[in-house]
Amino acid sequence: xxxxxxxxxxxxxxxxxxxxxxxxxxxxxxxxxxxxxxxxxxxxxxxxxxxxxxxxxxxxxxxxxxxxxxxxxxxxxxxxxxxxxxxxxxxxxxxxxxxxxxxxxxxxxxxxxxxxxxxxxxxxxxxxxxxxxxxxxxxxxxxxxxxxxxxxxxxxxxxxxxxxxxxxxxxxxxxxxxxxxxxxxxxxxxxxxxxxxxxxxxxxxxxxxxxxxxxxxxxxxxxxxxxxxxxxxxxxxxxxxxxxxxxxxxxxxxxxxxxxxxxxxxxxxxxxxxxxxxxxxxxxx
Length: 285
Description:
CATH superfamily: Divalent-metal-dependent TIM barrel enzymes
Distance between the termini: 22 Å
Shape: globular
Order of helices and strands: EHEHEHEEEHEHEHHEEEHEH
Largest sheet: 8 strands, parallel, barrel
Helix content: 40-55%
Structural class: alpha/beta
Number of domains: 1
């Protein structure tokens, strides 16, 4: 395993409907799994036992839904303390969340964009630092898709990098979100990718989306990954080396065997880029 990363290979998001198919026999191509902790905290009985068995078999990471790091409301520290107990109990390798917000006085049931401003950088970084203090671990923030940029004072990439630096946190690099935003906001996806600080990347997400119009893509995680996004993933490996990558699929979930064909595609690109990388190292030596 590459010690630079807490997990390795290709991963898949765990859904309860998959559990039976994942246990007999366990698919060899899955290197790690990802769960939303909100869906598993406090779960007992047979489902809790099955989840525990999976955490003992696979490296497990968490991708949260409700931290709402950019919310104007106070941070829900009671939730963060519950989260800490869950992460520790199940030896979760990594915890990530969205660089957005989803609550104010109540839950808003969507990921809303944080204004790209200097004030927001300081506000969000302070809240991330508080979460890291409670969890006693560095957390990972995801670059998100967004459809409006209210009060924007700086480019998305500048805002993202400023938060990562000030909060001293890691990055969940979502290549599909880069592609979606590049279409919706008309920027160059490759140039955005080049500006990512390599040392901050913890792992990668790749997913499908819905094309509403030529200039409007909706990030749904409900379809197969398209070729331009696969190409962007390969560009990422070529630039930064092979990085653990997780396939996201949140609805229209096909049978596991079909889902694993895209996991195999991730592994194929990883193997290809690893071979190229190894040849380059040998030539330098």
